[in-house]
Amino acid sequence: MKQLPESKGSYGRFWRMLMGAMPARILMSALDLGVFDLLDDFRSPAEVAQRLDTHPANTRLFLDSLVTADLLEKRHGLYRNLPDTTHFLKRGTPLYLGDLLRFSWGLCVDPLKDLPKLLREGPAPGPGIEDENLWAEASRSNAAWAFGEMGRMMAGIVSELDGFPGFARMLDLGGGHGIFTLYFVQAHPSMTGVVFDRPAITRATREFIEEYGMAERVGIAQGDYLTDDLGSGYDLIWASSTLNFARQELDSLLTKIYAALKPDGYFAAFQDGLTHEHTKPDVALGFLPGALQSGADFGFDQGEIAQAMLKAGFRSVRSHSLDTPMGTMDLDIARK
Fold it and tell me: Which of 84, 140, 148, 236 is deepest in the core (most CB within 10 A)?
């Protein structure tokens, strides 16, 4: 009689990994259909199907799956959003994430359908992670990343910097939507801010500045921070998830940043900080599609930016690893 195999572990994690794709697909389909826009109050599957013009029986099955995924609640055959679903996934709410999730899906998940081809043939031509039009389109949707929790968290950290009450002027380098600047300026009685980015990208910046009544204190400078002058006399220069574009020119950019700061000024870089030989934390997976398509590795190892700051002449650097809704990221704060 042949011995039956014995297991020394469980294959559960592999099954969970496979099934993990299902809630993501269900979520994206619900966003595209506008399901969450209808369910502030309890509704029957027949009502939802009528509003969405979808198949009644399949609509009920789909709504059940949204309950399974902890996006809806079900009582007596009726369905309603959970509170955080309305908060983040209903169109028109201040913290709506739908556009950000769609953009991230298109940038980080959808390209992996060509993964075998990219592995066999190498990088693919076409618009990549450095494409200005891509980021111009994304600037408004990506603002959701900074609104609320993240904006308040970063403003809290910046406002604790030594000398913050005396700050007069800050620069948001490659700031895109400029939302972090709005939070920082709002946390200060008089500081003004400048959001620096390429012309196509700053259209959304201007809209946010006007929407939140900050035009008297926040301005825009247009250009390429790798080649154009940054100005001078800043108490704080802030850079969030933008130094990846300068990875090959980091030393020269930090020299420019150092020169643009006042004595005792700060440069704060909020970025990925990869560990375990460039494989952790999970945020590293987000770089895979862009790296495969472009042939360039955009991720920073933890400590890489801090070391470059010291090399550029900054007298001290404080580094923090922060838990964010998108995973663990590093904040390096250098002082001139």
Answer: 236
Instruction: Using only the alpha carbons of the chain, give its radius of gyration.
Output: 23
Q: Which residues contact 177 (CB under 8 A, 6 or more apart)?
A: 139, 140, 142, 143, 146, 204, 205, 208
Cis peptide before 281 (omega within 30 of 0): yes
Share of the chain above pLDDT 70, in %: 98
DSSP E strand stretches across the chain:
72-75, 78-81, 169-173, 192-197, 218-222, 234-240, 261-271, 316-324, 327-335
Pairing, β 327-335 against β 169-173: unpaired
How many C-beta atoms surround the C-beta of residue 335 within 10 A? 19
| pLDDT over threshold 80, residue 138 | no
Task: Tell me if residue 178 falls in helix, strand or coil.
Answer: coil
Predicted confidence band of residue 240 (pLDDT cuts 50, 70, 90) = very high
* Helix (H/G/I), strand (E/B), else coil: 31: helix
CB 209 within 8 A of CB 172: no
Q: How many CB atoms lie within 10 A of CB 327?
A: 14
- The beta-carbon contacts of 70-75 under 8 Å, at least 24 apart in sequence, are 71/26, 71/27, 71/30, 71/36, 72/39, 75/42
Give the rounded distance of the alpha carbon of 34 from its chain centre: 23
